[in-house]
Amino acid sequence: MKMTARSVLTCLVCAIAVAGLLVAPAQAGTKQFKLGVMGPMTGDQARWGLDLLHSSQIAADELNAKGGVLGAKAVVVGEDDQHNPKIGEAVAQKFVDDKEVMGVVGPYNSAVVLAITPIYEKAHLVHMGASFSNPKITEQGFTTVFRVNSRDDRQGPAGAEYVLKTLKAKKVTVLDDQTTFGKGVADEFVKALEAAGTKPSRAVIKQGDKDFRAVLGTIPKDVEAIYFGGYAPEGALLVRQMKELGLKAVFLGPDGLFEPEDYIKAAGGAADGSVVTALAAPPESVPAAKEYIKKYEAKHGTIGPYSLNAYDGASIIFAAIKRAGKLDRAAIAAEVAKTKDYKGISSGRPVTFDKKGDNVNAAVYVYKVADGKFTLLSEITFAK
Amino acid sequence: MELHQILDMLPQQVAFGLTLGSIYALLALGFTMVYGILEMINFAHGEVFMVGSFLGWGVFLQVLQHKFLPISAVVLLPLMLVVAMVGAALLAMAMERLAYRPLRRAQRLAPLITAVGVSIFLQNAVLLFQLWFMQGPRIRVYESEKIFPYTAHMQIAGASLTYLAITILAISILLMLILEWFINKTRLGRAMRATAQDSEMASIVGVSVNGTIALTFCVGGALAGAGGVLVGLYYTQIDLYMGYYAGLKAFAAAVLGGIGNVRGAMLGGYFLGVAEALSITFLNPAYKDLVAFVILILVLLFRPGGLLGENVPEKV
Lengths: 384, 316
Known about the structure:
The complex is a heterodimer of chains A (384) and B (316).
Chain A: H1 5-29, E1 32-39, H2 46-65, E2 73-80, H3 85-97, E3 101-105, H4 110-122, E4 127-129, E5 145-147, H5 152-167, E6 172-176, H6 180-195, E7 201-204, H7 213-217, E8 225-229, H8 232-245, E9 250-253, H9 260-265, E10 275-278, H10 290-300, H11 307-324, H12 329-337, E11 364-370, E12 373-380
Helix pairs in contact in A: 2-11, 3-4, 5-6, 11-12
Chain B: H1 3-38, H2 45-66, H3 73-100, H4 109-133, E1 140-141, E2 153-156, E3 159-162, H5 163-185, H6 187-197, H7 199-204, H8 209-235, E4 237-238, H9 242-257, H10 262-282, H11 288-302
Antiparallel strand pairs in B: 1-4, 2-3
Helix pairs in contact in B: 1-5, 1-8, 1-9, 1-10, 2-3, 2-4, 2-8, 2-9, 3-8, 5-6, 5-8, 6-8, 9-10, 9-11, 10-11
């Protein structure tokens, strides 16, 4: 059979028309809206992105079991940003263009959220952080970005205080992975250290590299503490290779290292004794979260560290939709901003957003790794 | 830092560079051998390496979990290497048979684009495999410390080398020596050299060109598989994107040494590894990739054929 261009075109048009007829009634039947979730879902940081996705999905399932909100069911759509700001921008544009998306949970990384907030701001689309912590994110005067967790200008100094007061270390080396998050939190740590009169030496690594032996080889053997601004995969490698090289310094890091699998397990026993400041409570310490953790672990295995924050983030968006009374992005964003004393499961304290979008009750948690587990040392709160 | 402090750490840093360099060299060989014969850059070579690394990891994990073999490097390492090398060699041959051979007479860009396609295909195949059977596409950990303890060191020429590093150096040098012997001293090696020089002429004198090309992919794939296991043990973390990053460095090493030249690939690998380690020592670690690629550009400016590219007319 010989097909001319025109007959091909005719066939195509017919096919599209038929497909349209088939799809249209299915959509009209149930009312729905979408909750976007973005984060790294493949590669070295996949656990975090999938964690945001699973947590939001459970929040949505619970909502739908109660009949949804405003008579509409929540549908969760996950998109992988590979912790790459460029891919993040494409994902953000996709969510903005999909008129059913009423809110977004994520992304995970500071670098990605800094790239995409302008895109969401233009569309009045609210996006809720469970983990992004660079101070600048909520300092730009935007009205659609919020976070359940605390900030790096709080956890950096918390790490410095541990080095100064508990370790009483004088010789300190600071490494960072040159990402927005890693360098930012390392800068905050150094600022606090220098304010107390201790001047650390600094070096950098490249995120994604696996062999840091040559960088560690340039660190003098008598350094007492090494602080690393960066994420778990590289942190695990650093602490492992430190042990191999015989560096005895105490290893410290920010919440990027707060990952039982990709930091502690990947470090193969070398992480014991290291200290991690984090922006999430130990899940088992929150009584209200008990039910949720059971549900999560039955489905997805060991709960991720930012799961509780993400669950609260999704639930806060749902609550705002209910208060707004309509599926309208700008109205929802305005309602999220009014969130006050929201009793969630992310910590023992309720969530209240300030004018910038930061949670005034968010705390910094200091953990020490012992016997292959994170053990809480202290919890630092900042609410007045 | 004072100069004498830097000089004190120099042997150690060179040792780190050589270990890294031998891994680059193993990978670079696969690029250079295929280029020597087909004048084609096999961009999917990094993925063969990645699959090899996952195969070795699978063997390691099974033995660690079920303990049907003693957990020792003497038993485990050869087993991991054999499984990864055979698997990677078969994959590389399948790739050649299914994706490249049908396009051998096509215009030059076609196989190149196909190679990029194969690379994406293999990455996604591993991604889906992990999604369906292995709880998601996240990093996987080689628990190297179980067979190479952290504290097992040896002092050599002022540098403290772990047994793991020594093993990596030894295995990669051994594999390269075997390759040298194979190419220069055996019948099949002669067929490879002949095909590289002039495939039409080689077929006239009775060399099976298809068979020789398949053999080249087989050998390159096996080396990549071995490299995958060694990298897994040395880096301890593998993920499905590892082939892309390692492929970039190995390709640079192959070009630096003179693409198509086997000894050039080895030299290029070691050169790049040591250059990285030294730029970390003397300059800012942030510049290590910059230094590596500036060296590459400088070499190519003055010796467009690479370090050994013009001197040796033979190529494989």
